[in-house]
Model the fold of this input.
Amino acid sequence: MEARNAMTLGDIIRRAAVIHGSRQAVVSDGRSLTYAELTTRIYRLANALISRDTRQQERVAILARNRIEYMEVFGACEVAGFIVVNVNIRLSEPEIVRICMDCQPSVLFFAEEFASLARAVQAAVPDLRLLIGLDGTMDGALGYEAMLAEASVDAPVLRARPEHVAHLMYTSGTTGGPKGVMLTHAAFLEATRVMALEGGLSPIDRGLIVMPFFHLGGKIEQMAFGFLGGAIILKSTFDPIDILRTIEEERVTIAHFAPIMIQRLLETLDASSETFDASSLRCVHYASAPMPVPLLRRALERFGPIFVQVYGMTECIVGSALKAHQHRPDGDDNDRRRLGSAGQPCFGNQVRVVRADGSECDHGEIGEILFRSPTMMLGYWNKDPATIEAMRDGWYYTQDLGTLDAEGFLYVVDRKKDMIISGGENIHSWEVEEVLRTHPAIAEVAVIAVPDEEWGESVRACVMLRAGEKLDASAVIEYCRARLATYKKPRDVDFVEDLPRLFNGKIDKKALRAPYWKGRDRQVS
Done:
């Protein structure tokens, strides 16, 4: 039975308009809106869609970079009960078209730079009724501002319910093709509460969001700030110098970065003749990928003990957190070891690490990480077999491998499909990468499995050197041999100028492996 006081994401918007109405809600590209102004525009948009016969739980897709209108599309859907599909604009046209053919949106919002993509989607999706240009009327598409101008400012007659799907977020496809993750209002609202609590947010914070809104990290930060009434400083692209200037000029107090972004900021601070004042920062959330311990130590030295790691995934929004007070590089052995952990389960969450037969692993024993959480997905859109495989007996099987210690600290050691099996021995790519990251000449590294006629698979390191440094393959291999069991060392080394990345900053190991496995019956992906 539904609780009487069960809330939706739309309730966050309605509440903010009342109790934070005059406060600044968002600043972006020279524009600023208060919570009252933002809510008025959200109501207008929801009413404009309702007047054009958009029904609850119909899909509303968007192709755009971060901008204020993106937040308004989110809000209109969350208030009225439409399902947002925030499409990854970094995908190829065929990939975007396939996603839209899968979810069949009725409405598509698009920025002018993605007009040709919007037309490709329109041609492929027969159910698409409304094409809306965020930058005005384009080739017959409705103009966004014109729609708002003619719509009512009253609260929409349609209201979302807690069990409604709020967001349909497509995964990055690191373990197969993209899958649409169904996230309900109830799950997302609980994740918002947990993020505000575990992330240490407050109503007086000014939060920088540069992670794209088609990524879970950007969206959950936006919800958490709206929940508490903080101001959002919204950026559409990541440029280290621009970000550092924005922190100084806007007196940003909280920011959310992928680890690669933190590395770029540190490199810029080290290399730039310009000085930047980042003293207003009191908290930095990092997520999307584990932060290598050497990089984390550099960040702590530069910015101080202000970092909070959040470990989650689209299917289970917030799983565990390593809080600022738990980042102790100068503490005892346990403290230093836990710098490499993903922290402890967030409030309301349970975590297990299990063997292949489902039995519980001992402390320190590697197994698959399972979560049970009120922030879990409802399932995968149009993919019942994948849902059944991922969600069993109330637990989400993450396909991440890790260990738990006696105090519940979780260590993520690898993706299940990134594990290398060479001559019957399990080799975790992250373990080899952690060793190589300590080499002073190495800037970044990714370790992958490549086919080996003798051993089945062997270890190959893809290494990016620091500027001006030189290193050969034998030196890399010997460096590992001195620090790892000999069977774990790379057999080969590729020196690369850059490493391919997914939209969320994670290294795209699937792309790195593809040339080596091309034409083979078995693919590691």
Remarks:
- DSSP finds 16 helices and 27 strands in the chain.
- Residues 521-525 have pLDDT under 50 and may be disordered.
- The domain at 9-21+28-161 is CATH 3.40.50.12780 (Rossmann fold).
